[in-house]
């Protein structure tokens, strides 16, 4: 059996590795952030330690121990916590990556609790690379994962949601947010529209219809992963 000092060291190591991944999620203000990931990792490590060493007093000639059984319950049970990190906003589902990171952190905790230090450190580095390193590439090269934000300046009172949907036709189901605010120029309205994630080809077909919008003055647009916050203006 490992010494008590080593067991404490495993728990501390799990806390450190979990905090590295949790900090990346905390930086993006997700529900499952620094403390959640640390708790999951330390808890998983503790459960693994209990699974390996906690039943040693009961072992005998007719009693055998299978440490993997308790670990398997962690892998399945952590799904309930991951589900809490998933948010549904209309037809858009967010938080799947955070839920996956919580599930992965549980695996790291199990590895640390089992004394697999090198694989747990390597897994932490790989997960951090996936979360923080690949996202910029995803934003840059994978258009499907981007929403389209459009700011339309129109003559005051000319463009309503109904008129906008009539112009778009069947493409109107792509509209996720439609916000009208008075422009600084009193003769115009600023209409902020967010379209759901789509390819450039799909958006190009919608874009061609903008010329038919009533009272159109100008259009500006961008692609991003974020939604418009109506309280940020």
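Sequence proposed for the structure above (233 residues):
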């Amino acid at each position: 059996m490992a010494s008590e000092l080593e067991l404490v060291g495993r728990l501390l190591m799990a806390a450190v590795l979990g905090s590295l991944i949790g900090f990346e999620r905390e930086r993006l203000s997700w529900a499952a952030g620094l403390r959640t990931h640390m708790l999951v990792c330390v808890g998983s490590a503790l459960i693994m330690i209990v699974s390996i060493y906690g039943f040693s007093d009961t072992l005998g000639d007719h009693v055998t121990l299978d440490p993997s059984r308790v670990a398997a319950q962690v892998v399945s049970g952590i799904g309930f916590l991951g589900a809490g990190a998933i948010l549904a906003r209309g037809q858009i589902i967010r938080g799947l990556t955070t839920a996956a990171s919580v599930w992965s952190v549980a695996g790291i905790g199990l590895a640390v609790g089992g004394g697999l230090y090198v694989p747990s450190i390597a897994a932490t580095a790989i997960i951090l690379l996936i979360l923080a390193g690949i996202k910029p590439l995803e934003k840059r090269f994978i258009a499907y994962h981007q929403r389209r934000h459009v700011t339309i300046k129109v003559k005051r009172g000319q463009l309503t949601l109904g008129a906008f949907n009539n112009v778009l036709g069947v493409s109107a189901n792509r509209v996720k947010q439609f916000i009208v605010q008075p422009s600084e120029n009193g003769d115009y309205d600023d209409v902020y529209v967010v379209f759901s994630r789509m390819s450039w080809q799909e958006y190009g077909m919608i874009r061609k219809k903008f010329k038919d919008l009533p009272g159109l003055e100008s259009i500006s647009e961008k692609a991003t992963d974020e939604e418009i916050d109506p309280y940020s203006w």
